[in-house]
Amino acid sequence: MKRNNLLGALISMPAVLIYSLFVIYPLISAFRYSFTSWDGIGAKEFVGLANYIQIFQSPELVASIKNSLSLIVFFSVFPIFFGLLLANFIVRIRTQKIRSITQVILFFPQILPLAASGIAWSWMYAKNGLVNQFLTAVGLEKFAQSWLAGFSTALPAVGIIGAWVLTGFCAVLLATGISKIDSSLYEAARIDGANWWSEFRNVTIPGLRQEISVLITVTTIAALSSFDIIYVTTLGGPGSSTLVPGISIYRLAFTQSSVGLASAFGILLMVIVLIAIVPIQFYSRRSDQ
Amino acid sequence: MITTLSEKIIGRALLIVAVICTVLPILSMFSASLEPADTTPLGLSWPKDPQWGNYKEAFSGGHVLELMKSSIFIVLLVVPVTLLFATMAGYAIGKMKIRGHSALFFFFLLGLTIPFESIIVPLYYQVDRLHLLNTQLAIVFPLIALFMPFSIFWMRAHFLRIPSEISEAAKVDGASEFQEFRRIHMPLAIPSLSALAVIIFIWTWNQFILGVVLIDDPLKRTVAGALTFFQGQYWISIPLISASALIIIAPSLILFLIFQRKFISSLLQGAIKA
């Protein structure tokens, strides 16, 4: 037994080492930097909680947090809502071949780099892009505009990109979940005269509790750490209308040389993620029992 | 499942709309990529004189060959090493149940919720001190480390599913710990390992923020990180940006179409387990 412990410790060592060196150690450094004022080159000066206080006093950084919270609507609520709706219809497709082709197409944005999706959509939203072309075709050309350049349109426009990436993923995952629900429950509901809505509410949703809690977790993390899409589409602009924490951290550290403040914002982002997902995990674990 | 006619019609209509919305951005990019490079195309139009030369131009001007080499180099380091380390640690935690295995597991779980953005700043200075900045290794090490929590979680779950009778039978037959691992557990782990390989491949290939921050030269990043290079190079020409973006996504798209089942089931399992 003793020999086994030694062997086990030995084979865990590479994982422990690389993880400690490149995840845990930087995390500790981030924590340490967050209490200092540092430009990245000179000496670090201990400033206590000043960086954390500054985050909440800076309108730009507060906007950044608010924007990422708004993005949850687009990255989580829309995809899960439409995903449920679509999944419900996917499982009703009788021809196996058509069903799998539909799933493959809906799923495919998930395998693209987010940066590539961002580029595709920048073009969709451009002045000559497909969105405006469509509006003109249906006689709504007065609404045509550069969607990513408008103060009020940029954030929803970026959010829709997230919805585009995640809806198919949610639909396919939920469809897999529905096919695992006992089909006798559906037959019983129909015999009791349930229409599709009450069947959806009373059989499908309760049967998908685990899948839904997983999706809330995954999509919320995607919304809060949405660096890639924003970086290639708007870089946070116009103004700070699409600024998110990832972009703020990047700018603070690498263009404004406020490494301490950037680190504090990184720690705060991690705390926000934890606050958002721990209750979901807790709730879903508890209701599983 | 019982379905009425009206449900069927509404359902079909919705699915068709969803499918169209999913492919439109890519189609629009494709139609733009075939327009003359010096024009501003319209969202979706049938190119009268398709300029396939744009792809040639984007391929050479965008240094795609160099990029693919860099990406493949990074993937070939990250995927096998991640699999190897995670299998070893997962085996120690899930199968051998060494002393302190739950504490060790918890230590790795901590990393599951850390957003890359939270540690990217200290990582930059750390990689700089190691003199790795602007080399591919600058993202190889952090990527392996950042994938550890998920991969160990995955492999541990696999080893927990293997009934202990199998190991006991091997012990009775006088197999050493190593022989047992090599002869029994490795072959059984192949489906779990290949699914994990698919996930880690996609995550590495599509990695963006680490490349953007840690490697100045876009041609040393993975392909996703290099997209900013095309944006810089071709910002004036939508046809060329579109062509290069399509070239970039082609390899993963082709792999996805060939191994769609493996991809979808792996990524779905990945989500459930995370």
TrEMBL record, chain A:
<keyword id="KW-1003">Cell membrane</keyword>
<feature type="transmembrane region" description="Helical">
    <location>
        <begin position="212"/>
        <end position="233"/>
    </location>
</feature>
<keyword id="KW-0472">Membrane</keyword>
<dbReference type="InterPro" id="IPR051393">
    <property type="entry name" value="ABC_transporter_permease"/>
</dbReference>
<dbReference type="Pfam" id="PF00528">
    <property type="entry name" value="BPD_transp_1"/>
</dbReference>
<feature type="domain" description="ABC transmembrane type-1">
    <location>
        <begin position="65"/>
        <end position="280"/>
    </location>
</feature>
<feature type="transmembrane region" description="Helical">
    <location>
        <begin position="7"/>
        <end position="28"/>
    </location>
</feature>
<protein>
    <submittedName>
        <fullName>Unannotated protein</fullName>
    </submittedName>
</protein>
<feature type="transmembrane region" description="Helical">
    <location>
        <begin position="103"/>
        <end position="126"/>
    </location>
</feature>
<keyword id="KW-0812">Transmembrane</keyword>
<dbReference type="GO" id="GO:0005886">
    <property type="term" value="C:plasma membrane"/>
</dbReference>
<feature type="transmembrane region" description="Helical">
    <location>
        <begin position="146"/>
        <end position="175"/>
    </location>
</feature>
<keyword id="KW-0813">Transport</keyword>
<dbReference type="InterPro" id="IPR000515">
    <property type="entry name" value="MetI-like"/>
</dbReference>
<dbReference type="GO" id="GO:0055085">
    <property type="term" value="P:transmembrane transport"/>
</dbReference>
<keyword id="KW-1133">Transmembrane helix</keyword>
<dbReference type="InterPro" id="IPR035906">
    <property type="entry name" value="MetI-like_sf"/>
</dbReference>
<feature type="transmembrane region" description="Helical">
    <location>
        <begin position="261"/>
        <end position="283"/>
    </location>
</feature>
<feature type="transmembrane region" description="Helical">
    <location>
        <begin position="69"/>
        <end position="91"/>
    </location>
</feature>
TrEMBL record, chain B:
<dbReference type="GO" id="GO:0005886">
    <property type="term" value="C:plasma membrane"/>
</dbReference>
<feature type="domain" description="ABC transmembrane type-1">
    <location>
        <begin position="68"/>
        <end position="259"/>
    </location>
</feature>
<keyword id="KW-0472">Membrane</keyword>
<feature type="transmembrane region" description="Helical">
    <location>
        <begin position="188"/>
        <end position="215"/>
    </location>
</feature>
<dbReference type="Pfam" id="PF00528">
    <property type="entry name" value="BPD_transp_1"/>
</dbReference>
<keyword id="KW-0813">Transport</keyword>
<keyword id="KW-1133">Transmembrane helix</keyword>
<keyword id="KW-1003">Cell membrane</keyword>
<feature type="transmembrane region" description="Helical">
    <location>
        <begin position="235"/>
        <end position="259"/>
    </location>
</feature>
<dbReference type="InterPro" id="IPR035906">
    <property type="entry name" value="MetI-like_sf"/>
</dbReference>
<feature type="transmembrane region" description="Helical">
    <location>
        <begin position="12"/>
        <end position="34"/>
    </location>
</feature>
<keyword id="KW-0812">Transmembrane</keyword>
<dbReference type="InterPro" id="IPR000515">
    <property type="entry name" value="MetI-like"/>
</dbReference>
<feature type="transmembrane region" description="Helical">
    <location>
        <begin position="72"/>
        <end position="93"/>
    </location>
</feature>
<dbReference type="GO" id="GO:0055085">
    <property type="term" value="P:transmembrane transport"/>
</dbReference>
<feature type="transmembrane region" description="Helical">
    <location>
        <begin position="105"/>
        <end position="125"/>
    </location>
</feature>
<feature type="transmembrane region" description="Helical">
    <location>
        <begin position="137"/>
        <end position="155"/>
    </location>
</feature>
<protein>
    <submittedName>
        <fullName>Unannotated protein</fullName>
    </submittedName>
</protein>
